[in-house]
Specification:
By secondary structure, this protein is of the alpha/beta class. The chain is built from eleven helices and twelve strands. It starts with a strand and ends with a helix.
């Protein structure tokens, strides 16, 4: 397994994840590689060739966080490495589960198409452009994942688009609608992106699985996270048809608190649980870890949640909870 600690608090939460992983009854090897701002400083590239080769050969990639203020507006930025890594591993489906008192939903975001991968640039007249483009095959691939997850859950798939304005969204709606007959046990509904955002705030409990394109998924998954505790608790898994997935917390690198020992590792540990479920084939261990993180959030909250536990203390609370569950 490859670990990419990255920048800011990334190394701190990655260390917490490594400690928890090593406590589990698993045979695994964890190897760290430079990525993001650290890799730019050391090697001039946010995704060095050695790091990419290791990721391609790995069973899974565990990523801390990337981004540093010093690279804002720079020609080479840490985030460019993340976009390149997603494309190289062809992880087309980004899973963003969100749970809370009255919420249990999963957003499936298309991750290797749309605006983030389209042609972009500046023109001589000073204008700029970003191109959103999708093929039917790209849409079908991620939509089928959405249908399959809905089939395993409560049987409702909400496809989110902007078909009243965008041609890519009209194609999206056509392709998704055409797949519905293959999943008679799943109820399909279409929702405009702005309406979806409103309902995620007002009535998130109505949703089961949402599937949408890259940009809408990026925005709506953060809206959903904000409804259930914030990005500090939000995990993600990015999966492809073959090869390793990328498992990472959704939060940023938070350089303002880096090195202080107060970073909340809950999102990273929940991402480890997704790794256990989707890469290691260990759903029972995944569920046990999720319960232990929830327990630690109750018993030893970190400062961002109004508590006093540091990163190490929170991690130790998770380990104690795992030990109690195994006893």
């Amino acid at each position: 397994m490859v670990c990419l600690p990255g920048d800011g608090i990334g190394p701190e939460v990655t260390a917490a994840a490594a400690r928890v992983l090593r406590s589990l009854p698993l045979e695994l090897t964890l190897e760290d590689y430079p990525f993001g701002g650290r890799a730019i400083h050391e090697l001039g590239d946010p995704l060095p060739e050695e790091t990419l080769s290791a990721c391609l050969a790995a069973d899974a990639v565990l990523l801390g966080a990337v981004g540093l203020p010093e690279f804002d507006g720079a020609p080479v930025r840490p985030e460019q490495g993340l976009i390149r890594l997603r494309g190289a591993l062809d992880v087309d489906a980004n899973l963003r589960p969100t749970t809370g008192d009255d919420v249990d939903l999963l957003i499936v975001r298309e991750l290797v198409g749309g605006l983030y991968f389209g042609a972009s640039g500046r023109r001589a007249d000073g204008s700029a452009f970003d191109t959103c483009e999708y093929s039917p095959g790209q849409i079908e691939r991620v939509a089928r994942r959405g249908f399959e997850f809905a089939r395993e859950r409560r049987g409702l798939l909400t496809s989110v688009d902007k078909a009243n304005v965008l041609e890519t969204s009209r194609l999206w709606r056509e392709v998704v609608s055409g797949l519905a007959a293959d999943y008679p046990d799943v109820r399909l509904e279409h929702l405009l992106a702005d309406t979806a955002g409103l309902q995620l705030v007002q009535d998130p409990g109505r949703f089961d699985v949402l599937v949408t394109e890259n940009t809408f998924g990026d925005i709506l998954s953060d809206v959903a996270a904000g409804r259930c505790g914030g990005l500090g608790l939000a995990a993600s898994a990015s999966l492809g048809d073959a090869g390793p997935g990328i498992f990472e917390p959704v939060h940023g690198s938070a350089p303002d608190i880096a090195g202080r020992g107060v970073a909340n590792p809950a999102a990273m540990l929940r991402s480890v649980a997704l790794l256990l479920r989707y890469a290691a084939g260990e759903p029972e261990l995944a569920a046990a870890l999720e319960r232990s993180v929830d327990d630690a959030l109750e018993r030893s909250p970190t400062p961002d949640l109004g508590g006093t536990a540091g990163t190490v203390e929170f991690t130790e609370a998770v380990l104690r909870s795992l030990d109690r569950a195994a006893a």
